[in-house]
Amino acid sequence: MKVIAMKKLFTLVAALALTTWTLPVHATEPAPVKNIVLVHGAFVDGSGWSQVYRSLRSSGYNVTMVQNPTASLADDVAVTHLAISQHDGPVVLVGHSYGGVVITEAGTDPRVKSLVYIAAFVPDKGESVQTLIASAPLGAPEPPILPPQKGFLFLDRAKFADSFAADVPPEEASFMADSQVPWGLDALGDAVTEPAWKSKPSWYLVATDDKMIPPPAQRLMAQRMGATVSEVAGSHAIYVSQPTAVTELIKQAAEGSK
Q1: Do the Cβ atoms of 168 and 240 come closer than 8 Å?
Q2: Does residue 12 sit within a domain?
Q3: Cβ of 230: how many Cβ atoms within 10 Å?
Q4: Closest C-alpha to 118, from 36, 61, 174, 192
Q5: How many distinct structural domains can be found in the chain?
Q6: Do you know which InterPro entries this protein is assigned to (predicted)?
Q7: Which domain holds residue 87?
Q8: Which of 9, 34, 38, 171 has a CA positioned 20 to 30 A from the CA of residue 250?
Q9: Cβ distance 120 to 95 under 8 Å?
């Protein structure tokens, strides 16, 4: 009996020796996205992001600001792709106003992990700013856009502060009015081909005192794309007047895009 027992023991030991043991593998938590690309809208340039830029940089983010020519959507998407390509990792793409159209088209870039819309237009496939403003809510304030000049649009300087930057310090709002970037009619009418928000997570900041894009329209666009929504009291230039709120939403997107 002892011999039989010993044989069974040796057989068990041999079987254990041939067994491959697999230890549990714990998945590492992906790091937050550390690259941010900021896209300005119509009538302004990238300098308006300066406070948001400094805040993000002080928090350890790599930040690039796109300088859109705003003559056509295709040109603006091209320079946005160039800005994205300057980063060697995943990117959070942020757009204000018309910049929302740009990031909707450019955001299909595989390096873009998420989209952040700041008081921005959010078109679907085949839509443009022109089609979106055609369905503006009744009674909404009418932006003081002047008649086209050689294919470009400007805002009435005398009405710029009230409509675009009512909560920005007067001297700064005056500078913004006098340094307007011409907005091309092609950019206004160019349609999106493949909306990035249909395949990428999105965040939206509603400016509740906006007189350029009515807040109800902002909410509808944000709801349509299923965005994570925040609301802050501020003018259309909320990225200038409320940089902390804008920065915090961008950080949320970076954390949520891990």
Answers
A1: yes
A2: no
A3: 15
A4: 36
A5: 1
A6: AB_hydrolase_1, AB_hydrolase_fold, Sec-Metab_Biosynth_Hydrolase
A7: 35-256
A8: 171
A9: yes
Distance CA 44, CA 244 (A): 20
What 3-state DSSP class applies to 95? strand
* Per-residue pLDDT at 22 exceeds 50: no
Of all helices (H) and strands (E), which one includes residue 241? helix 238-241
Domain-embedded: residue 5: no
Q: Assess whether pLDDT exceeds 90 at residue 112.
A: yes
Beta strands in 110-213 (DSSP E): 112-118, 152-153, 183-184, 202-207
Where would I find the H helices in 59-211? 73-85, 99-106, 129-134, 157-164, 170-178, 185-189
Q: How many CB atoms lie within 10 A of CB 244?
A: 11
Q: What is the pLDDT of residue 134?
A: 87
CATH number of the CATH domain containing 70: 3.40.50.1820
Which residue has better confidence, 2 or 252?
Answer: 252
Distance CA 98, CA 101 (A): 5
Measured from the Cβ of residue 152, the count of other Cβ atoms closer than 10 Å reads: 18
Quick check: 5 pLDDT over 60? no
CB 49 within 8 A of CB 74: no
pLDDT value for 148: 96
- The answer as to whether 71 is a domain residue is yes
| 33 residue type, one letter | V
Per-residue pLDDT at 32: 79
Structure tokens that stand for 154 in this block: 């400007």
CA 178 to CA 155: how far, in whole Å? Answer: 10
147 token code pair: 């008649």
| Amino acid making up residue 248 | E
Residue 231 corresponds to which tokens in the numbers above?
Answer: 């609301």
The answer to whether 117 and 227 have CB atoms below 8 angstroms apart is yes
